Amino acid sequence: MDDVRLTLAFDLAALRRLETPGEAVADAARWSEHVGIVTDRPPHVLTKFTREHAISQDFSPDPVSARETLEHMREHFDTGRYVHVGTGTDHQQQAEAAGWEYLDIETAATEAGWELGSTPEPTDSSRVDTSTDDWP
């Protein structure tokens, strides 16, 4: 592995696709300078997810879009590479618009040795959640 410093952003939908998202974030933190999670969902959804999976991240859960968070983190963290792990075309477009490389979760999981869960989670943009199970 080269010594290019890396900032890695997981989309929440991508982490939900993994069998053990907390372990994947911890693994990524070993070879990344900065690791965080972005989402278009409200901040309390992200906070609940990170608590449930004991995830520590370098991005704060702000009430802004995933694209805005990516743009801000690119300005805030000075690394050689910026990689966004997502789940489809919407995430790829967000990443590229913010100046990040895009990597699909299936490819990332294969390359990093992370196990995908048995049921794919819908992307954040297509998910309609009428339950209150994502309240803290």
Task: Summarize the entry for a quick read.
The protein is of the alpha/beta class. It has helices at 12-16, 21-31, 43-52, 66-76, 89-97, 105-112, and strands at residues 6-11, 34-38, 81-86, 101-104.
Explain what the structure shows.
It contains 6 helices and 4 strands. The chain has helices spanning 12-16, 21-31, 43-52, 66-76, 89-97, 105-112; strands at 6-11, 34-38, 81-86, 101-104. A 4-stranded parallel beta sheet has the order 2-1-3-4, with helices on both faces.
- CATH hierarchy, class: Alpha Beta
Question: What is the number of helical segments per DSSP (H or I, 4+ residues)?
Answer: 6
| Oligomeric grouping of the chains | single chain
What is the rounded distance between the termini? 39 Å
Annotation keywords:
136 residues, alpha/beta, Rossmann fold, 4-stranded parallel β-sheet, globular
How does the SSE layout of this entry go?
Layout: E1 6-11, H1 12-16, H2 21-31, E2 34-38, H3 43-52, H4 66-76, E3 81-86, H5 89-97, E4 101-104, H6 105-112
Parallel strand pairs: 1-2, 1-3, 3-4
